[in-house]
Protein 1
Amino acid sequence: AQTVTQSQPEMSVQEAETVTLSCTYDTSESDYYLFWYKQPPSRQMILVIRQEAYKQQNATENRFSVNFQKAAKSFSLKISDSQLGDAAMYFCAYRRGTDKLIFGTGTRLQVFP
Amino acid sequence: ETGVTQSPTHLIKTRGQQVTLRCSSQSGHNTVSWYQQALGQGPQFIFQYYREEENGRGNFPPRFSGLQFPNYSSELNVNALELDDSALYLCASSPEGRGQETQYFGPGTRLLVL
């Protein structure tokens, strides 16, 4: 069965600095998708970034980028120039095709001014 | 284009009661999934509907049931509520074809069972 592991329950970063959140996953599949979602205290799960496993190029979305290492089954999220509004729970998630999303346990990110 | 909406935002029920939660998919999305998120946990998959048919189910008992309507809105019904059913219930929709692998979430319904 596929699993997603986030080993950092909490992380903190100073405003304008860079932080990296870790995620590892386990699967025997070769074709799948990986996601990072952000969940602020308002509870809504917001898509941050998406990566297709068949693409070697790391996805980027403005200040957010990933380091996707398929062989190592690692998918970390880098947030550059951190802002106060980035403070939230961040969930790493795996999906094969249109199957269910499998989430990690989340990393709480605090941003200090 | 409207996003995914859910109602109600909060709900309090007592043990043994039944509850219905509602979700309106994002415009043009014909697949809807429901997730349960306990406090401090990641969301857990309950089930998924595609064109009004259930096409995937997680490890939840039969007292969790659902419906999808022709306009692709959806309901989650929970019978015989238990204290452990207290959680945030999230609905997510995705389009058919291009982009179908990405799910977009609603704001959730917070259910408290006393």
Protein 2
Amino acid sequence: ETGVTQTPRHLVMGMTNKKSLKCEQHLGHNAMYWYKQSAKKPLELMFVYSLEERVENNSVPSRFSPECPNSSHLFLHLHTLQPEDSALYLCASSQATGYGYTFGSGTRLTVV
Amino acid sequence: ELKVEQNPLFLSMQEGKNYTIYCNYSTTSDRLYWYRQDPGKSLESLFVLLSNGAVKQEGRLMASLDTKARLSTLHITAAVHDLSATYFCAPATSGTYKYIFGTGTRLKVLA
């Protein structure tokens, strides 16, 4: 399988739940990213991993916790989220930081 | 801080017409990307522009870059309904994570 795969595609969770989003890339890319896309807001960069090391954390609340166990996999662990965290969460990868992205299909998250 | 502005934010146009989307950014970058997003879908890469004066064309879309003016344009020629989508520009600098997406331009082509 090629490209960037995100699971699940849709997720509904309560504010007290703990869930994880998964992203997998088979492109041999060295950088992976999490973005948040909300209605009426620009794409917001959340986390950047380069060669499995986190290199950027854009002041994201601690209820979002990323994990990059290897260069092909990226997780976003979620706990005690708020309704305003409902959004489309996009994973992307690139050959290196600053290069063109390949995006996954996204996870549509709804916090109830 | 890198800021990216696109205009217009919304564009409704008739099939067969031409129009241009503008992307202005605030700091120097050595490349610029254009992406397309269909409703409910993810982003798809369209173009990468790597130098001042670069021009890329794909079908009815043509993108150009003026690094001195910090301006990129996406020109639509003889629009068709299939071009309806949101278009994002993203200036970037290789080797860094200074990669900011513009606000997006939502294009609707009317039959």
